[in-house]
């Protein structure tokens, strides 16, 4: 029996449409067929607690207004954090910062810490509440621009470094790295 000739593959520089019935490799299997892709977005409403609003709009007891905690800065940090929060909810069993209306436990809060291109860290304390299957409320409880923000025992906090993040938890007066996302 004669050997068959070697098959020479050529690179094609044009865009080739993929066969919708072809089996492809995905993260679960080497033979899958894509059935559908869809953006399943949800609606987010951001509120500011009176405590937070007064901190940046009024002077405190010493006659100073808190700088660097404007609505734009804090809301931008929240929107940047949403995908990271969802990532950690799916990945870490111990992490779920969402409050549900039927819950009788103490309200869960998360601290978002912006460590990007600023002199001092921007710390934003947020409560996330489930409203309906595709509607969530984020409430800014307070915000401070300070490097040594006081974190409560058991509290989760999410630090942002450009596109990366680190989820930490303060446990028995010690900082514990729970997980990290490196883009």
How would you describe this structure to a colleague?
This protein is an alpha/beta fold and 183 residues long. 16% of the residues lie in helices and 31% in strands. The protein is built from two helices and eight strands. It has helices at 50-57, 71-91, and strands spanning 43-48, 98-99, 110-114, 122-132, 135-145, 156-161, 164-171, 174-181. Strands 1, 2, 3, 4, 5, 6, 7 and 8 form an eight-stranded mixed sheet that branches. Strand 3 and strand 4 (122-132) form a beta hairpin. The termini are far apart. The model has no long low-confidence stretch (mean pLDDT 87).
Topology of this structure?
Blueprint lengths: L42 E6 L1 H8 L13 H21 L6 E2 L10 E5 L7 E11 L2 E11 L10 E6 L2 E8 L2 E8 L2
Parallel strand pairs: 1-5, 2-4, 3-6
Antiparallel strand pairs: 3-4, 4-5, 6-7, 7-8
Brief account:
This protein is α/β, with parallel strands linked by helices and 183 residues long.
